[in-house]
Design a protein that fits this description.
It comes from Croceicoccus marinus. With 415 residues, the chain is an alpha/beta fold. It contains 14 helices and eight strands. The chain is globular.
Length: 415
């Protein structure tokens, strides 16, 4: 068999990693090599935080150690029964590629995952060894995100946090039934246990850092996970409740959503078509509502229809407001922060500016217009010194008045 070149393998394994969405590089410690020691930085000149239009980070070297896999998850293009081109890197090769790309200013760090080869322990050891080479042999101070394997020995997984800025364990699917049906080699209890173990290790390390100055840093950017949307029959309400439970139980930094994409030689149990990409976008908006706007999972679920699905034509914050019109209008000069955050069209920054400005003067509609893209769509939900909506909030055609133009992509952070 002819050995593939580095470039040929890079093409295969970078393409194989494209389905993983959880590669953002935020939240880590600030490190650089301006003192003349080490290589790389997590901030500063030469570091480009670039994101694709759908929100995926593209400034990391993102690849798999190998796309060989002994598991047979139906939704995975790299499953053992899939007829795809296979390739494999050694830990040393990945480390050399990372350093080479970094010196050329192509990347800011490494996102590394892998198919399962031989067994979970062996694969996890290879991933950790890659990070060890970068940190200890090259003194690499850039960003490293390792995708860990829940079936691997807990001590090996724990070592990943000593070298990586962020670690992640994919829950794969939002329901246990979906996991049993589509990923028979994986176990929901094992995944939850591994995430709990990692959370305990991160907590212990942070406590040690408070007591001992020279305690080693441990996964400073925390852990995250990813769920596939649309491969099984889970509703948006199911997904939102699962995400909320993960945030609460394991203190995750992020839950990422990846819309299921049909793959070559797909299993007959999978849908023939991918879900609308806007569904993934709505789930990210609902995630934002829970994390930054004070909504409970139940309230987000209330924005969904009877089938548990969030509307695709309007964002979940607006959907909730239209269902619970008795909560509006909100007086911007008197209402507490919690009520202002419920107003469609007002973001966290806008609410902060309102709270600051109203300490010094009474706000009028023109003042609010400076803080939002469309004050006309905000008017049914607010009261100012010179504006009161009267019957506008109760109009039967209110949705048509405030809904965004058809076909226009909404800003993820505008909710």
């Amino acid at each position: 068999m002819i050995q593939k070149t580095i470039i040929e393998r890079l093409k295969v394994l970078a393409d194989a990693a494209k389905y993983d969405a959880s590669c953002a590089s935020s939240g880590t410690n600030k490190r650089d090599s301006r003192g003349g020691k080490g290589i790389g930085s997590t901030e500063g000149m030469g570091i480009c935080h670039a994101y694709a239009p759908d929100g995926r980070c593209i400034s990391l070297l993102k690849l798999l150690l190998t796309n060989h896999c002994i598991f047979d998850c139906h939704y995975c293009v790299n499953r053992k029964s899939s007829n795809v081109e296979r390739a494999r890197f050694t830990p040393q090769e990945v480390a050399d590629l990372t350093i080479s790309f970094y010196k050329r200013n192509y990347i800011e760090g490494l996102f590394l995952s892998s198919g399962i080869i031989r067994n979970s322990d062996h694969t996890m050891e290879q991933l950790v060894e890659t990070a060890r080479i970068l940190r200890e042999e090259h003194d690499f101070r850039g960003y490293i995100h390792l995708k860990t394997i829940p079936e691997a020995d807990a001590e090996i997984v724990r070592r990943a946090g000593l070298y990586a800025d962020r670690v992640s364990i994919n829950v794969e699917l939002p329901t246990v039934a979906g996991l049993v049906r589509l990923a028979p080699d994986k176990n929901a209890q094992t995944i939850d246990g591994a995430m709990g173990t990692m959370n305990d290790a991160i907590t212990e390390a942070r406590d040690a850092k408070k007591r001992f100055r020279h305690a080693p840093r441990y996964a400073p950017a925390g852990q995250s996970t990813q769920m596939i949307v649309g491969a099984d029959g889970a509703s948006d309400a199911d997904i939102v409740n699962r995400a909320s439970a993960l945030y609460g139980q394991h203190r995750l930094r992020r839950v990422y959503y990846s819309a299921f994409s049909p793959i070559p030689d797909a299993s007959a149990v999978l849908p023939l078509r991918r879900p609308p990409l806007i569904r993934e976008h709505r789930l990210y908006q609902s995630d934002w509502l829970m994390r930054f706007y004070g909504y409970s999972p139940g309230e987000v679920a209330q924005a969904a229809g009877a089938d548990g699905m969030l509307p695709l034509d309007i964002d979940p914050k607006l959907a909730w407001a239209l269902k619970f019109r008795e909560s509006f209008p909100v007086d911007v000069n008197r209402a507490p922060k919690e009520a202002l955050l419920r107003v469609p069209g007002l973001g966290t920054r806008g609410v902060g500016q309102i709270l600051s400005a109203r300490r010094h003067r009474t706000l009028r509609l023109d003042d609010i217009a400076k803080l939002t893209v469309s004050v006309a769509k905000l008017r049914p939900f607010i009261v100012t010194a010179d504006w009161r909506p009267v019957t506008l909030t109760d109009r039967a055609d209110l949705k048509a008045l405030v809904a965004p133009d058809a076909g226009r992509q909404l800003d993820l952070f505008a909710a």
